[in-house]
Design goal:
The protein is mainly α. It has a two-stranded parallel sheet. The protein is rod-shaped. It has three helices and two strands, in the order αβαβα.
Amino acid sequence: METDRALTRRPALATAALAAAATFLPALPAQAAPPRDPVTFTVASFNILGSNHTEHSSQWELGPRRARWSLRWLEREKVSVVGLQVPVVTATLGGSAS
């Protein structure tokens, strides 16, 4: 009979031991979010010759044509962010391009 009692106590003892261990063990950290794919983009600094520099030039194409060429190049190169130098803004902003 004593053997039967020992067998019936083991599950209770195991349950008690697990409960005690769970009480004193530190909590596991929350599972981290899965890593994301890196974000990539292309940055360019582009010097577009201002149209006020070439208005009467025989050496350079007119500004609107160069602007179209520039836009096509930037799109072809898949540029995400571009900083332009020497764009003429007088027509859109009313400022001075000097």
